[in-house]
Amino acid sequence: MEPVVQFDNVNKSYGGYVAVENLNLSIEAGKFVTLLGPSGCGKSTSLRMLGGFERPTSGRILLNGKDVTRVPPNKRNVNIVFQDYALFPHMTVAKNIAFGLELKGFDNQKIHRRVSELLELVQLEEYARRLPSELSGGQRQRVALMRALAPDPDVLLLDEPLSALDAKLRQQMQIELKSIQEKTGKTFMFVTHDQEEALTMSDTIVVMNKGRIEQMGDPDTLYGRPGSVFVANFIGETNLLRSTVLGMDGDMTTLNWNGITITASQGGLAPKLGEHLYVVLRPEAIHCSVAEPASGNRIKGKIRQRVFKGNHTSLMVDVGDGTLLNTLVHPSEIAHLSGENIWVGWKPETATVIPDRHAHN
Amino acid sequence: MRAMFSDAPRVTLAAFYWAFILYLLLPLTLMMAMSFKDANFVAFPIGDWTFDWYGKVMQDKQFLEACLYSIMIAAATTLAATILGVWISMLIVAEGIRGQVIIFALACLPAVVPGMISAISLRIFISTIDMPTGTAAIILGHTVHAVPFVVVMALTRLRSMPGNLVDAARDLGADSVVAFFRVTLPYLGPALFGGMIFCVLLSIDDFVRTFFLGGYRLTLPMLIFAKVQGGMSPEINAMATLVLVVTAAVGLYAEHLTRRARTR
């Protein structure tokens, strides 16, 4: 099937500053795709280029196979949900949603039907005649979403739309956004710097850094098998152990970290003997115990810090050489770990290796 | 002792304020009081009171004509100044335009050029291009003077406008013209309304420009001026009182409306 959106070798620079470099990206219909990265990574610029508000310095953007690189925003069948919603302050909720439909030349009856249908979708029927200033943050967010969905765009673009909401509402809206996307079957292109948002909602996450795609994949893959130090650090909490390859066995590899032999999954990499690699170890994969584990990787350590986090406790364990491992201990187990000296252990297949380089440096 | 010292500046400030208010209101009050005097000359004591002067003014054809003429000129001035003012302020906030500071400074110049100088130069200008004095010339003169006030009010509002409102309109299928009329202009609404009322008041109040550019038809200030030259009479006081009450009411109402619109 032909992708809905294609970025074909797209570059964008402002003066000497390169915002987006050689972007090649295809988005399939009906998917929830997130561009994730720190500020200045080029994610918003990419979205604005697809919306028609920025013109690429070179390259092409295709929408349903048609080149739209030079088509102005009002002639593209994509709509944006803006970061601060950009609702028209002098129009009621219903008028805001109807705006795009009126410009498409629909008759009044059809507009009315579509507006009520959309308001019903987000349970805002009673607010049709209110002005945006009379709504709460979450309600404005929903209206902005419905206004952008109303003209039935090929792709809905969302530019950090949840960043203005408080934490609780943001979580609620993540679930709602995902369910609206599933109900409508629309292609969503979501831009955020919040890895939690990306993990919660996306079918595909595109991690961007310094104007380039760092890694692309489904949330599971990105979390479980990050392809670079940048991705490992950006998504979730991570422990990185810089080690030397001692040997390979099937898809496992044996490494030397600080005089201790550890085993980890190769993660699709083909390690060479003597090569330096990072072992990626997620806090929840680590098991802390007083007695030495019988099997698997294990290192002796000292507890340096305990941070109570409600549903778990975070232990910072010094495993020698000043390296602190961030571990996660369940409430049922924390009582057994009263002393300072403990063992940290993990199953070899829960750790993976990534190349020893900060990508694109 | 200490309390007295610390209160002294406050008392002084208040005293000067009330002295100022007295100076402001006393002449107005006297003028209004005289309009009710049942005699042909303006002097104390008032003696008998009457409404006759108002009846006379309301039947004075010259006065009513001058009122109508002034209002017509004010309306035309306001229309022209609003269109020009919005046009210029859009230019000033537009992206990729150079010398916006200079555009703004030039647009504001008419507000600071002394009325006398502006009036004389316009008079010389229209006779140079063989344009007759009269209605069109007055409207031109008033418009030039009113534009800066519209520009300043429109600009203040435009600068507070979220930049992506227009982007949102474009995104939803509006070309730049539709986006202007359906989003930018309504957003400017309250500020423009205030600016327009200001234009009306400026135009009705203007004497110097009208004097130099006008023809035989008298505007309100010119009529009152002509009457004063013929000697003070309570009739003039009645006219002036009417003008004062109407303009003050319009001004306050406009302020009230824009204030309400701004808080929304």
Overall pLDDT metric of chain A = 87
Count of beta strands of chain A: 20
Q: Percent of residues of chain B in beta strands?
A: under 5%
Q: Portion of residues in helices of chain A?
A: 10-25%
- N to C succession of SSEs of chain B: HHHHHHHHHHH
CATH fold annotation of chain B? MetI-like fold
Uncertain residue ranges of chain B: none
Tally the helices of chain A.
Answer: 9
Number of domains of chain B: 1
C-alpha Rg of chain B (nearest Å)? 23 Å
* Measured distance between first and last alpha carbons of chain A: 36 Å
- Name the CATH homologous superfamily of chain B: MetI-like
Alpha-carbon Rg of chain A, integer: 24 Å
Give the class-level CATH name of chain B.
Answer: Mainly Alpha
| Molecular shape of chain B | globular
Instruction: Please estimate the helix content of chain B.
Output: over 70%
Query: Strands of the largest sheet of chain A, in order across it?
Result: 6-7-8-3-9-10
> In the CATH scheme, what's the topology name of the largest domain in chain A?
Rossmann fold
Average predicted local confidence, pLDDT of chain B? 85
Write the layout of secondary structure elements.
The complex is a heterodimer of chains A (361) and B (264).
Chain A: E1 5-14, E2 17-27, E3 32-36, H1 43-51, E4 58-63, E5 66-67, E6 78-81, H2 93-103, H3 108-121, H4 137-149, E7 155-159, H5 167-184, E8 187-192, H6 195-201, E9 204-209, E10 212-217, H7 219-224, H8 229-234, E11 239-249, E12 252-257, E13 260-265, E14 276-281, E15 287-289, E16 297-308, E17 313-318, E18 324-329, H9 331-334, E19 341-346, E20 352-355
Parallel strand pairs in A: 3-8, 3-9, 6-7, 7-8
Antiparallel strand pairs in A: 1-2, 1-4, 4-5, 9-10, 11-12, 11-14, 12-13, 14-20, 15-19, 16-17, 16-19, 17-18
Helix pairs in contact in A: 2-3, 2-4
Chain B: H1 2-34, H2 52-59, H3 61-93, H4 100-112, H5 115-128, H6 135-159, H7 164-171, H8 176-205, H9 208-213, H10 220-229, H11 234-262
